Amino acid sequence: MRDDFVFVDEVVSGIRWDAKYATWDNFTGKPVDGYLVNRVVGTRAFCAALEKARDKAAELGFGLLLWDVYRPQRAVDRFMRWAEEPEDGRKKARHYPNIERPQMFEQGYVATKSGHSRGSTVDLTLYRLDTGELADMGGDHDLMDVVSHHGADGVPEEAAKNRAHLCAIMEGSGFSSYECEWWHYNLKDEPYPDTYFDFPIE
Question: Which domains does the chain have, with CATH numbers?
Fold first, then answer.
């Protein structure tokens, strides 16, 4: 692992994580290339900003749960190969109910060059500090559908409020939002804006 990258949980206390692509619980249905352990890795600059986000979230009674930060380029390459494989239906209803696999790239839900591979982009959600339960966001991680867009119609009031909380927390901590995915934020002053890394998470 590069010197400027760290295991996020070792630097930012009080966060939770569930590295979905290291597990069978993701849109491909199996662990993804480059994710050898269920840990999240990011740049030190990312971690410094995340500490601010953690504190802002706590003021509202929330904690942060991270699904993905650094993503090896080999994982992105695996996504592209998977998109060309025959549909087996195992994950379609949950993750891409209204589109076909190749459309994930066409519609901006998955990128051939991902900001995650630069080490300062995060997929995350909120959980309640008093109960530990995940906040209602009106849709799960990697639900590739218009309902996941910021400002989407049909999102229940409580979920819309929680999305707004997350957005305010992250944008107030130096991150920019991504229109198509309520869970996706990128550090504005990222240290490697033009570099896509490929070391495995191990």
Answer: 3-185 (3.30.1380.10)
